[in-house]
Amino acid sequence: MTKLILLITLVWLFSCVQENQNQNQPITPQPEYTSEDAGEWEAIKQDHLPFTDVNLKEKSIFVKIESKTFNETHYIEKIGIMNQDKVDLAVKSFNRTDKTEVAFQFKTFPEDWKHTKIYVKCNLHDLWTTTLEEEIAKTRAREREKR
Questions:
Q1: For residue range 86-130, what is the model confidence (pLDDT) as tens digits?
Q2: C-beta neighbour count of 83 within 10 angstroms
Q3: What is the pLDDT of residues 24-37, one digit of tens each?
Q4: Which residues, 6+ apart, have CB-to-CB distance to 102 below 8 Å?
Q5: Which CATH number fits domain 39-146: 3.40.50.12780, 2.30.30.230, 2.60.40.730, 3.10.150.10?
Q6: Helix, strand or coil for residue 136?
Q7: What is the average pLDDT score of the chain?
Q8: Read out DSSP for 107-133?
């Protein structure tokens, strides 16, 4: 019986040490975060995902971030549109106190909707992206709801 108690205690101690070691390891940031893969930022993802309105006829993309959590120390640095090679097609930088919204106007609208991404860069919580394809679908769904 004593050996069994000793064995259980050792197993428990070993699992506590393993758990503690895992908690102390630094988190490696992801290259980008999305609504489906928010990583360690799952609890705050709604503050960082943009509201986007895509107008295909006018070849424009309106992007807005609204959050009550942004302030002088936590803010959006940039909002942009990038292609699959991560080259900016359009970008706007913001100061700490700026209203974070922008309307991008294109002469030729990006055709590769699956790989063109709308991004938001937070000074604390890295790069957040969504595809143009997803945002076009959301815009169309909102338009259908209005009817």
A1: 999 999 999 988 999 999 999 998 888 899 999 999 999 999 999
A2: 14
A3: 677 788 899 999 99
A4: 62, 63, 64, 79, 92
A5: 2.60.40.730
A6: helix
A7: 87
A8: SS--S-TTT-EEEEEETTTEEEEEEHH
